[in-house]
Specification:
4-stranded antiparallel β-sheet
Length: about 100
């Protein structure tokens, strides 16, 4: 089982792959992480949006994702529903 620090590092490496495409530095605010016994859910934003809260810097399509603590598998969710919905679907084994 992976540690919390390892899960966070996996998440950071994952969002770094989007930075080049987006052209902005991305961050994962710790206060938005949702820790479960099977992993951590992450939400990310552009750093400038998070610091300024200026909507012109808000990302579109930045889907939340889960990093499972068993093997570090990343599961990306959608943006059309709330994160709570996706958590419920995952916990009911209805999400791939």
């Amino acid at each position: 089982m992976l540690s919390e620090k390892e899960l966070i590092n996996i998440a950071i490496d994952y969002i770094k792959t989007f930075e080049k495409e987006i052209g902005r530095e991305l961050i994962i605010p710790k206060e938005l992480m949702i820790k479960k016994n099977y992993g951590i859910y992450f939400i990310y934003h552009s750093k400038i949006y998070y610091e300024t809260k200026d909507w012109k810097y808000k990302l579109i399509g930045n889907a939340p994702f889960l990093v499972e603590n068993k093997m570090g598998k990343i599961i990306e969710f959608g943006t059309s529903r709330s994160l709570d919905h996706y958590i419920q679907e995952y916990e009911a084994s209805r999400y791939p």
